[in-house]
Amino acid sequence: MRVSVNQQNLPQFFENKSGLVYNIKRAEIKLVGFLATNNLPFTLMDTLCPLLKDVAPDSEILKGIATKRTKATEIMKLTTGKHFKLKLSEKLTTPGSFFSLVLDETTDRSTTKQSALTVPFYNEDEKCVKTHFLDIIETPSGTADNLYMCIQNCLKDHSIPLENFVGFSSDTTHVMVGKSHSVFSLLKDKNPASTASKACLKLPTSVEDLLRDLGAHFSRSFARKCALIEFQKYFQTEIHSILKPSNTRWLSLNSCVDRVLEQYPALEAYLKELVFEDPSKTSNEMLKTMNNCYTKIYLEFLSYVLSLLTEFNILFQSEAPLLYKLKSEVERLLTNNVSNYIELKYVKSLTNIFEVDKTNPHHFEKQDNIYIGMEASESILLIKSSTTTQDLDIFYNSCLNFYIELVKEIKSRFNFVVSDPLFDMIKIVDPAHAQSFKTKSSKPIFIRFPILNNIVKQQLTEQE
């Protein structure tokens, strides 16, 4: 094979930055970029370049373009390779640079599977959330263990700490998001779960299993949905679908809980007929759980508590800047949950709710005074005469342990450092706080954030 002595290697391809040669290289890179950004195949270059030359035969730049599928692939590798990955890795290794992972596996039947990893993260330079390609990883098997190890190795190769990882997204296959053994469950075991998720481990697993089994049961069959509608009409409940809890959006469980409570009589009657006509292990377990009088009360308790957490969560999904509300809202959420099981006298004596002794039984309310929500409290009164003291103790202990775990998780996630009065400073941007004149001057904010002096005038800010 003869090799031309004038042939350039790819690194030299990018060195000349003047004249016709540079413009030709620039045009080739732009064409490759056009294919990549529009998700077009590199094979298109085999016909695109000849077409452009035919359209504009007088263009010296187009005459010099000699890029087909192979060269286009190499240009893409070089332009988006180590330099870009290094730059992205630097952004993600900074403490507090939280990111999510989006994983998508190829659907071909080749021996080696490929999975693309993209990273949504907050770009400090551009002051917005960006999504960038991170890497393509290869694995000989598409099992959860292999994919998980590939993700671990990829992050390790780029020196990206897993501690900064906060979210995961993929398709809904069992390998990716199954609750027993999946990429999601393995990542979740490695990283702390949501506050609600941790707290719910203190409740009987049958309750969450019921929600997931009901969601799966009706999601797979149109005939089952139609059969349920007949019972909904009979019991005069709303014709609503049964929702399926999401593995990657845990607080969606609140909507699922409320939907099951709304449809409880219709669902119970539907399952009785199903077990009679076509019994199975899953349908028997669902009916057994629904026949337990405490199941509905647990769901009513969850509906109350999860509504508090969802309200807090939704508040900070707003597009408006609400950082100044963070500390006060966390304090409010913490106080609400602490007051549900700790004596109010002790709670009021605290100058800082974060100093609460959450596990000291000496401060706990008596069992009957533990607040579990209006609906759950009324349901407990209805069954109190017909249930055993032991079952009642188990229920209240589960709710108590739920609250203790919830308070523990909230405190661990929102650790407002005493030495940095940032959150107390920025209260002044809240109109209600500003009008109370509790803070006399905005000067501490300008000291804490000197960059503001380049944007606004201190005196005008003070007057406003």
List the defining traits of the structure above.
single chain, 464 residues, alpha+beta, four-stranded mixed beta sheet, 24 helices, 8% strand
Describe the structure.
The model has no long low-confidence stretch (mean pLDDT 82). Strands 3-2-1-4 form a four-stranded mixed β-sheet. It has 464 residues and is an alpha+beta fold. Helix content is 55%, strand content 8%. The protein has helices at 10-13, 19-37, 45-55, 60-64, 69-79, 82-93, 144-157, 174-177, 183-190, 195-200, 205-219, 222-234, 253-262, 264-277, 281-291, 293-315, 326-339, 344-348, 374-383, 389-413, 422-425, 431-435, 443-448, 458-463; strands at 99-105, 113-123, 128-139, 165-169. Strand 1 (99-105) and strand 2 form a beta hairpin. The chain is built from 24 helices and four strands.
Low-confidence stretches: none
Helical coverage, percent range: 40-55%
| Total count of strands | 4
| Rg over alpha carbons | 30 Å
Report a brief summary of the structure.
The chain is of the alpha+beta class and 464 residues long.
Draw up the topology in text.
Blueprint: H1 10-13, H2 19-37, H3 45-55, H4 60-64, H5 69-79, H6 82-93, E1 99-105, E2 113-123, E3 128-139, H7 144-157, E4 165-169, H8 174-177, H9 183-190, H10 195-200, H11 205-219, H12 222-234, H13 253-262, H14 264-277, H15 281-291, H16 293-315, H17 326-339, H18 344-348, H19 374-383, H20 389-413, H21 422-425, H22 431-435, H23 443-448, H24 458-463
Parallel strand pairs: 1-4
Antiparallel strand pairs: 1-2, 2-3
